[in-house]
Specification:
The structure holds 3 protein chains of 3 kinds. By secondary structure, chain B is an alpha+beta fold. In chain B, about 35% of the residues lie in helices and about 15% in strands. Chain B folds into 2 domains: about 80 residues, Ubiquitin-like (UB roll) (Roll); about 70 residues, [2Fe-2S]-binding domain (DNA polymerase, domain 1, Orthogonal Bundle). Chain C is α+β, with helices and mostly antiparallel strands. The chains are: A alpha+beta, B alpha+beta, C alpha+beta.
Amino acid sequence: MEMKFSGEFTVDIPKEKVFALLSDPEKFAPLLPAFHSMEMKDAKTAVISARVGIGKISGTASTELVLEKSEAPHHARYTGKGKVMQGAYRMTASFDLEDAGNGALIKWQGETQLVGKILSLAGGGMKGYAEKEINKLISSLQTALSPDSATAPAAAKPEGWFGRILRGLGGESEAPTIGETESPPPSPEEVQRARDESRKRISSVLDTSRRDAKPARKEDDRLIKGKGLFVDDFSPAGLLHMSLVRSPYAHARIVDIDVSRAEALPGVVCTLTGKEVMEMSEPFIQIGAGSPQNITDYALATDKAIYQGDPIVAVVAESIAIAQDAAQLVEVEYEPLEVLTDVEEALKDKVIIHDETGTNATFHGIYEYGDVDKAFEEAAHTVKIDKLFFHRFGSTAIEPNACVATWDQRGEIDLFSNTIMTIPLVFIAPALRINMDSIRLRTYDIGGSFGNKITNYPYLTLACLASKKANGAPVKWIETRAEHMLAGGHGSERAYLDTEVALDGDGVITAIRSRHIDDIGAYPRYEPLGCAIWSQVLPGAYKLRNIKIDFNQAVTNKGPAAPNRGYSRLPHIWFMERVIDICGHELGIPPDEMRLKNYIEAFPYETPNGCVYDSGDFPAMLAKAKELIGWDEWKKKQQEAREEGRLIGIGIGTTLDSGTNNWGQARYVNPDAPFSGNSTAATVKLDLDGMVVVSLGTFPQGQGHETTAAQTVAEVLGVSPDLIRVKTGFDSLNDSHTAQSGTYASQFAVTGLSAAHGAAVKLKAEMTKLACFALDAGEEDLEFGVGDMGPQVSVKGADRAVNYWMLANLINSNSAALPEELRDLSLNARHVYMPPFQIPDVEKKIGNLTLTYALQLHISVVEVDPDTFQTKVLDYAIVDDCGKVINPMIVEGQVHGATAHAIGAALVETLPYDADGNAISGSFTDYAPLTISSMPDLKCFNRESPSPFTFNGAKGMGEGGGGPLHSLCAALQDALHGKDIIIETSHNSAMSMFDQFSNGKAKGVNVASR
Amino acid sequence: MSNTMPVEITVNGEARQREVEPRMLLVEFIREELRLTGTHIGCDTSFCGACTVLMDGAAVKSCTLFAVQADGAEIITVEALERDGQLHPIQQAFSDDHGLQCGYCTPGMMLSSLALLAENPTPSAKDIRKALAGNVCRCTGYQNIIKAVQTAAGQLRGA
Amino acid sequence: MYPAPFRYHRPGTLGSALKLLAELGEGARPLAGGQSLIPILKMRMDEPSDLVDIGRLAELMHIRQEKNRVCIGALATHARIAVSAIAGEIPIIRDCAGGIADPQVRALGTIGGSVSIADPSSDWPALLHTLEAEIVCQGPSSKRAIKINDFIKDSYTNSLADAELVTEIQIPMPPENSGGAYIGFKKAAPAYPAASAGVQLTLADGNLCRDIRLVLGAAGPVPVTSRQVEQQLIGQPLAEKNLSQAAEALVELSDPPSDSRGSSEFKRAMLRSLFMRAANRAMQRAGGEKITGSHDYV
């Protein structure tokens, strides 16, 4: 935020005297309104400590004030810089003096740039505050310069105004003293009695009778008892804690770092700076081709800070409180640089964020299919949409990013974290210059991720380096929520420019051409993969064959993007949904008819770019959703409401959740990328005691993998899932992973369960062989099941059986009896599932990019209050089709959750930046993740169109395709019927609706018909 | 300023004495001093409610309270809900109705729900929404949480 | 996040608390419910040397009716006020007390703390203007009552003198045929309102306005009120047109900052609409209707 002020005033003393005061930092500084104390560094430089209060802020600000120019007796100029309560500022102040009668005319001007969290807290109140402070300065100058003031005035009394009220100091108001109140105050006994009653009420609820019952999911037992193990719950002996110093500037050169005061604080073990990190590690691997390969991304910023929140220094201490105390003592000197927050501006390359690359672009590619030009030539209608915009938001998992890293003296790393895939090992190990197998990567309970935690690997790497510097002590890093909001992984933004849509005379879309730009913030940490991933759903739910998208991506000075639920596909589907909705709206075709005219009709369906939509039925889903919501009744109510001037809208969103990636699409962004297909491993073993133990290569965060994997394995073995043990979390020691293992891209029901199923089948085959030997029977005579001795294999129709322990014993402790041909069995079956993918054609960008497509159809009914601009969701219906459902309860839970995220994004949640790169939503209080107060009731229905491509007919699901973003935008569009307003952004809070109602700008959509 | 003070806080029925720094938050006392890690931290501005515990019968955010302020108080955390290996109806209902996914917000959700049920044995969906307005869940979309609280209310009434 | 270290004191009586604050001087802060102060300390936006915990002073916890006025102790929590008999009688109090933040915050946060902090967007300072409340402030050797509009001087700035504490809020009982309503608009319960409006009125025969108090909250450094605008309504029918003019006049006086809760223009529009809603609800209540409702979200 930049503020400029100027003014003039006259004093009754000659300008030479005025100049003498103004040009002496030692005399001038104490006049500053919040002055507290000072030290002269040299004749021209004062180091000032001030007590300031801004908004909710009261604290110490340190400023270095330099007399930069002094031209006696008419001009003086000061520059200052310093830090103030989690923020930083720079200022200049200059004075020009002229004679005015016997006195002097003082013309002054000042300029302040302020960045950092302080703004997010103080909001727009800052300017008013600054004005008041300047008025105070001017009046103290006037006092100091009044003829009565023989000498320079004494320092102003320290008076942080917020501090003042907090400490109960204050004003001059006079009021009559009043007598004691008549009735006595409550006695401590009465207070105690009220408390006892409250305690008693709780006790009666706590002391209720309990039943013997089992939790519904395997995971639930520990979680509902508070006995889960999240990263912060893990505290090995000798634990140290890491806190980070982050840049308040969005773009600044790091001139100097002084950690001496921090290191001197008792309890501090060490600090780490970018310079040390450069010595101890390598930059992270870059995925993109060409210039992005030159990006040097280390675990700490090195020469520049390139977003607000960029970590500059790590402090390691015996307690987190001390680490945070010490972080306050680190001094960093910055030289601010021009800030890029607009991606279109970034693409002009006038300012370069990564100096080593020469450009801000991280990808450019043209995706062109069919004959687009011809389709436009033949079009009956052409609809032009100037700009659509998909906003920045995040899933803000309730557990922040976290890890405990131990790099022990043997050179082995134990990395307990909440990352969500194996890929981080691929980034971390080379950065740390060690083998992947030297890192034991493990997770246990994870408090949600929604894709965001994929990019926490720089912090995991940093914690490893911190542990190394701390001689191998375990180092815990827990991101604070404030840090998360700046730097924890935001979903990226996308702008859609100059979109043109060709339609035939019936309103069937025949072609689209458009230019898209992704804004990924400061670093490509998983990008530019998003530049390919959207094309999994190239035509959305529609049958058009001619599409040309000019796709671009660039960096800006904002928080680095991370995959976010519906990653890259969701913004594209939102685009397609706005296109169909706007076209229908503009051409006067009812929304349901418009969809029906354009839906893909028969499945499997091969899209223009070679993806195969496996199964489903959009028209049937629409019919069902209309039935659920009561379409006709709402239409009637809408009509009545419109007559009363009320704004009710009904909107349809049709969306896809593509699951199980073909990693070959990475070659679209980097032809040399050694990736293709997909692979996920699982092991199922019969343990020494006969227990069936499943290890997965996935990193569940609430999706119930333990429950569904147990169901799958139990079904193979013909036993109850209760008899199957599934290990919690991920552990690279289990060897159940490949490089593509993880919990991402809606794939567990396919990849994870296929791997577990395959391993169970392998184990069963081994058990069968052993049982044939043990029971002296043929395979066809055996039966798997449960008997008196627990889970067993028996001979059909005979009274002969071996239980699992006996089988396990034959391999593990009683093998001498085994014949030679059975001695290659291990009862530890590992299976790697590889879906049937081909390498895509990189030149033409054609190939099957995902295995399954879950489908969702949402209808929402909203009412917009024309006075308060609030959108109330009046009714909400969802039809979901994710193929064969493995566990209906879990599937429904995912549908609810995905719906809530997109409702939040559509109506409440946004991560805007101001022009200086200050994050406006710097806390949960500012961001306001969707709460129960704003979540509507949902009417859900599940259809099952089994996938022909998976062993169980299931499709990956969970990301949900952002249905509410589509249906709510369509409903708003419908609600504003006749108002000449186009819903062009994905975020429509009351404030954005207000802007829509009042900005009066051109509609930005044109229709040409012939 | 490494001053410490003695406190005695009764947590889940057991009086616990410690010397603590005045700046120690109640949530830190519970998690780090007592190693009861079922109470979680999800934000730093008193928004998310993951740290909710019951203090003298009322739901409070233990991240917005110093341990020294709770000196002499009675605290109930999630660890107190299960007894003799049997689940409390609120726990059973959250599981049965799938009112949790990742489980991070769940302890706070259940304790806020219990505070509601202690005052109001027959809460409507609206009452539940009001009572849980200070507890954020990012997984469930709240639908099944509302259902679970109603189920638990029914069980408590029947008990 | 952890606050900077401080010393902690818990005096047993109001007298000793006042004495202690006087002795400790400028580095000390009183700690009541802590629901505003502690988040500030955690973010290290303030680093007091000492906290004086007054949270247990039973002598400041009362809520009672005395003849023609209501007396609420500074340490009465929002939660207790919301369910008190007084809130039943004066619905605008329930609107406010029951709508502040969420149940957890209401269980600890106090009216005295809220008034003392004088956050421009907090509810009590605005609401109390509609009830012509007086703030009782007590120092080591003095006790005085200050009208709420003299007490709140600027954003985060009150009229407390050295080592003085708010001890009680006194509210005159509204006469017969009175009704009031207060509505805040926010993104979620635990967020601060982006805008709020309160109206407390008394009806005369024929639905004419006998008396009225209006306020806009989160509308500038201090709650926005205007005696002049109120006077113009007195004796008039509270018709849409008159109220709408009053809304315009009040909004004209407001100066809401642009911030994460919305732009200044947006907030002005919200203030206008919330005012109209509050006025209508106040009229209905004055006419004897039982209507619940307070803050509104999203």
